[in-house]
Give the backbone structure.
Amino acid sequence: MKTLASETSSKVEQGRIVNNFSIHVATINGSGSQSSNNVLMRSLFQMGIPVSGKNLFPSNIAGLPTWFTIRVNKDGWIARKKEVDILVAMNPQTAYEDVMSLPSGAVCISPTELNLEKARQDVIHYVVPFTELANQATDQIKLRKLLTNMIYVGVVAELLGIDFAEIEKSIRRQFEGKAKAIDLNLVAVDAGRKWAKESAAKKDPYYVERMNKTEGKIIIDGNAACAIGSMFAGVSVITWYPITPSSSLCEQLIDYLHEYRRDEANGKATYAVIQAEDELAAIGMALGAGWAGARSMTSTSGPGISLMAEFVGLGYFAEIPTVIFDVQRVGPSTGMPTRTMQGDILSAYLLSHGDTKHIALLPGSVEECYSQALDAFNLAERFQTPVFVLSDLDLGMNNWMSDPFPYPEKPMDRGKVLNAQELEKLGKFERYRDVDGDGIPYRTLPGTNSPIAGYFTRGSGHNEAAAYTERADDYLRLMDRLNRKYQTARKYVPKPVIETQAGAKVGIIAYGSSDFAVQESRAQLNAEGLATDYLRLRAIPFTEELRDFVEKHDRIYVVEQNRDAQMRDLIRLEMPDLAMKLQSVLHYDGLPIDARSVTDAILSQEK
Amino acid sequence: MVESTLKQDAKAPNTNRIGLTLGDYKGSPSTLCDGCGHDAITSQIIKACYELAVEPHKVAKLSGIGCSSKTPAYFLSRAHGFNAVHGRMPSIATGVSMANKDLTLLAVSGDGDTASIGLGQFCHLVRRNVPMIYVIENNGVYGLTKGQFSATADIGSKLKTGVSNELPPIDICSLAVEMGCGFVGRSFAGDPKQLVALLKAAMSHKGTAILDVVSPCVTFNNHEGSTKSYKYAKEHEMPIHEIGYIPFYEQIAVDYEPGSAVEVKMHDGSHIVLRKAAKDYDPRNKLAAIDTIHKAIAEHQFLTGLLYIDEKKPDFTTIMQLDDQPLASLGQDKLRPGKDALSAIMAELK
């Protein structure tokens, strides 16, 4: 079975392109297309073919254009593919522009009434009488629009050769427990399938064939992965304010906590989730809980980060642990809030006023969303400081294939906390004294039964004993110790992942959700004769590996999803002597980054 | 303890039920202006905690920013304290309360901190009914930034410079009642007897207890034309009752006349006894409370006492169905689900 599958997958018969294409579905949001697209994606996944799905959606509930792009790739490249191979043009508002943007030879599946055939004659058209088919499928007018979306699933599946048993399985999963919905959707899929079988002669080269590359894998979005990581990290106070694209992180966390962290008999919970009145309050609650000894977190996006700025600075100076998930998006205000970006690198790193710099983790996959959530809580308590996890909309809200997550090996690291017995033995306690020389002081928690446990928490004006001070020398010592603590953090944060190639003189640095596109780009660059080494950053502050990497290469391209080369500038700040080696590949149109754009940008600068 | 008993002589300081002296409830010396109303309130907080034999290590002191918010440093030095950012102490308090529901939260804020920059957080704190004592040291003026009007300044009240306030005040007590607060009291820094009784009662309340205490600013708001001056407050104060607080452990010894008083039983078994003074006033009637507050404002009277109480409203830690143990004290065994949980989650995603 295994051999057979891999043989068929690698075989490209004459004129046939197998398991290697993208499908772009254009619909109107609120029309129910999300279910159809999930069914399509899942069916492909169940056939063992590497697949990814991305929802390119508007900030709206119903009526605006939305696209869903599915990438099928036998080699496992799951970044967005720049070129559209198969367009399903269901949205009259965008149909003309959608079809005009297709490359020559692409496929266009569209409803009869849109007349798209005339617009492009160099495209393979399948013109489907969707309205007629929907009318035949149900006499309920309200349902026809919804069913139209499932009819295209039938058409696409028949044309590509997707196994209908898998489609049925996906529908049953998608509409679990809703027998009527399942029946109706199966009827719709069948209507599409029949039409395609009887009325559409296959004119395009795209096919799917069963593989075994998804066995044992899971499909999950990054927000769910962060949520699972947070629960297994032992988070107990969770505060949030709804904001796209981070809301689903806390929403999914609530579901998991409800199932796994609550006593079913008496309803008592080992956690508290508070939907705050705004992000100002959300971070305040998280800091209050962290100060009092709970593992706390909040989850937000760029606008929320801005609102949290003052409190995060207090957290830095008063040395209070908490974890802040920032699912980055384009900002501010209206227009592009549902589009992806790596836009908060500098603002998160330097958040607040005065001299502040923070620890930030940079998950590059859903698995790292999980593992870095675990790391973040340990780092926050070890370093007694707010720690950021910088995810983004593409990673956070889109579905990704992954190996299942391993159970955490490391026990929870609660950091330097003194209890009443330890205080009695010591006889003396000073909250901000650097006893160990690593810049990290000891703390006590409110409620500790000792006459010397108490201390007063303030902002920038405190000495080692936490007493109020405005003395210049006290402030200098505090600032230098905080810096010492930050230097210690370099040894604790996740190290970068480095991949090398023999003879490579060019280095690529990337981070976060750019990883998939960069990996694929390196294969493309290889095919063009350019060998590259690759360093994927996983944390700020940087570790020593970064300097080594930059030093070793003639030229470095820092790939990132923002206009201003935020990470490159941060690296330049850190190593000004090597600044001129650092060049940029920037992707900032709001769409998830793709390999072709990276490859083209590097090749054009290499010329 | 044994040692101190043996050495006991005429000079030995008095101690309370748990063997602590009044001095054990003090903090560092105040750096506020001489005669500041806030220092008078600090003294009563110290007295109330001493007399109730509060265990200092079980208290978390919280404040925002302003002169008032400096005061937690001046009492209960053995307790943990948190001087937060301006107007956002309520969110810190909410987080602390969730992390450790066994702590007594004792918070001090000011009128700028609560009624302007922190008004949103104040309302939501009250709405959630986070269990805590929330004292507003209300002087109608921004002291620390040198004398700007706050949102509780009365129309027509004058700054030292002669500038008159044109906007109506926000009445913190009626707002708190409206937001569903279960304990709303008002007092005056110059009335230690009433203040200490209200503070003690607030400490027995399970929920947010709001105490709005008019506390004249001797430097910026204690002149002719100010409606938050010592002189004005003394002339216009109208106590709605004499308030007596009887802790649970003292009840047997107490003798009071129930016939002339409204008696309110607190959740911990202690009692507040309100002897009728100016009016026939029942603080358990919400609409009557709002009505009385507004009538007093219209008549330029400064109403003090326990304005409203509801001992039945569930507090936030109860609503949240928190584990019996404080969340902050839970270990990995209770916080990290087992391997089978992760396997089950992974299986669902396949």
